[in-house]
Write a structure and sequence with these properties.
This protein is of the alpha+beta class and 194 residues long. The chain has a domain of 122 residues: Glucose Permease (Domain IIA), CATH 2.70.70. Strands 3, 4, 5, 6, 7, 8, 9, 10 and 11 form a 9-stranded antiparallel β-sheet that branches. Strands 1-2 form a two-stranded antiparallel ribbon. The chain is elongated, with a radius of gyration of 25 Å. The structure holds zinc ion. Zinc ion binds next to loops.
């Protein structure tokens, strides 16, 4: 064997050893463990500007409950109620960041998501509970599991539904502020009023 041939052979052997060592290290890499904060999602049913936030509900099943009388006529309903069995997954209607997890007398277990441009807030109420690992600050995208349909707050025992609100936010508005707009056209396919 020539000197050059020996050198090439040595290089090939070294390359083979290097490749083999990569292979042997491959499977021993640490694998992700621990709670999943953003579960694998199904494609959301998107017909309007927003994804319908209750699993298994289609646009033609929605009722426009905006403006309905509430509390004996003392106030108008500034949201949409999406009826669904208790425990049904509630998924983000739009991208954003979980801004507040809040327990209120009226809304029960609630969750607020602020849009990336901070001009919109999405409100999810009467939840039976939050998704595992849910926390304020979590980044969500349409379809991210947020929680589960329930009857907490003033929904009425057994009247399981998602109360879903959308508010236009002015600069400086806090999570509980903003100007509610009707979510129905946004969910049912009439475009987002930006
Ligand atoms: Zn409601």
């Amino acid at each position: 064997m020539t000197r050059l041939g020996g050198s090439i052979l040595a290089l090939i052997v070294l390359a083979a050893i290097a490749f083999a060592s990569m292979l042997s290290f491959g499977p021993s890499r640490p694998r992700a463990v621990g709670p999943v904060t953003e579960p694998v999602i199904e494609p959301p049913a998107t017909t309007g500007a927003l994804a319908i936030p209750v699993a298994g509900v289609s646009a033609d099943q929605l009722s426009d409950t905006w403006g309905d009388s509430r509390a004996g006529g003392s106030r108008a309903h500034e949201a949409i109620d999406i009826m669904s069995p208790g425990g049904t997954p509630v998924r983000a209607a739009a991208a954003g960041q979980v801004e507040k997890l809040f327990q209120s007398d009226a809304g029960g277990t609630t969750l607020y998501v602020r849009s990336p441009d901070r001009r919109w807030s999405y409100y999810y109420a009467h939840l039976a509970g939050y998704a595992p690992g849910m926390h304020e600050g979590l980044i969500v995208r349409p379809g991210t599991l947020l929680g589960f349909v329930g009857d907490t707050g003033n929904a009425g025992a057994g009247n399981t539904h998602l109360h879903f609100g959308v508010s236009r936010m002015a600069p400086g508005d806090q999570w509980h502020e903003g100007q509610p707009v009707n979510p129905y056209p946004l969910l049912a396919g009439k475009g987002h009023d930006r």
